[in-house]
Write a structure and sequence with these properties.
This protein is an alpha/beta fold. It contains 8 helices and 8 strands, in the order E-H-E-H-H-H-E-H-E-H-E-E-E-H-E-H. Helix 1 crosses helix 8, helix 2 packs across helix 3 and helix 6 crosses helix 7. It binds BIS(adenosine)-5'-pentaphosphate (AP5) and magnesium ion (MG).
Length: 244
Amino acid sequence: MTSSIGRDSPIGSSSPIGRNSPIGRVVVLLGAPGAGKGTQAQILSKRLGLAHVATGDLFRAAVRDETPLGTVAKAYMDRGELVPDTVTIKMLLERLSKPDAAAGILLDGFPRNTAQADALDKALAEAGGSVDIAPYIEVPESDLVARLSGRWICRAEGHPYHEQANPPLVAGVCDIDGSELYQRTDDQPATVQARLRQQLGALAEVVAYYRDRGLLKPVDGRRGIDGVSEDLFASIAAATGTQG
Ligand code: AP5
Ligand code: MG
C-alpha cells in the first residue's frame, strides 16, 4: 500500500513517507543520553538491514554545514535542551521519505517526547505501517556521565568510541573510516548535567507511552557492548519475525 503524509499534515512535510513503497519494519531504540543508542544502532542496523535514522546525527550535520536548521538547533543542543518539535518532526519526516527507509528503519534519538511519538504513529499509519518494537537500553544515571565524558566520535560518520570501554585501535583515528576522532561539545560536564536534568523526564514519558501500547522491551544496558547487542537483536528479531 502506498499513501502519503504531508499534504494534509499539520506538520507540513512536503515529502511523504511510503510514497514509493510501503514502510517496512520500524524499531524505536530508547535510552538516556549516553545509554548506547548510537553504538547499538550502528551494529544492529547493518545486521537487520534497516536504515539508521538518528536525529542527533542529522542536527550535528546541519550544524557542521552551517545551514539555517543547524543555526536553530545548535542553540538548543548547547544548552542540553530538546530542539522544538516543529523543527524536529519536519526534519525526521523528510529523512523517512528517502528511498532507503522503505526497507525499514531503526530510530535512534526519536521520539524524545510524547508529541513526537504521536506524530510518528500518525505518519506511519498513513504510510500503512506502525512501530514494531521499542527496545529500551536501561543504564543507571550514575554510569551515564562516565560514558559521555569518555566518548570520542568520528568526524566522517559519527562512529562512537570510549576511552576505556571501546577504545580505537589507533588513538584519535576511527577504525572504520580513518577519520579524526573528536569530543562532542555537549559532552562537556556542565552540558551533560543539563541534558540529564532536562531530558530524563521526557524519556520516562516516552517509555510509558510504548509500555502502554505493549511495545516496550527493556534491555539491561550495563553489560558489555556485545552482550547488549545480542539481547537487542533477540528482542527485535522476535518482534519482527527476523531470522537470526
Ligand atoms: P543525540 O545525539 O541523540 O544524543 P543523546 O540522546 O543525548 O544520546 P547520545 O548520542 O549522547 O548517547 P547514545 O545513547 O547514542 O550513546 P553512545 O552509543 O554514543 O542528541 C543530541 C542533542 O540533539 C539533544 O540533546 C537535543 O538537543 C538534540 N536532539 C536530538 N534528537 C532530538 C529530538 N528527537 N528532539 C529534540 N531534540 C533532539 O554511547 C555513549 C558512550 O558509551 C560511548 O563512548 C560508547 O563507546 C560507550 N558505550 C556504549 N555502550 C556501552 C556499553 N555497553 N558499555 C560501556 N560503554 C558503552
Ligand atoms: Mg547517540
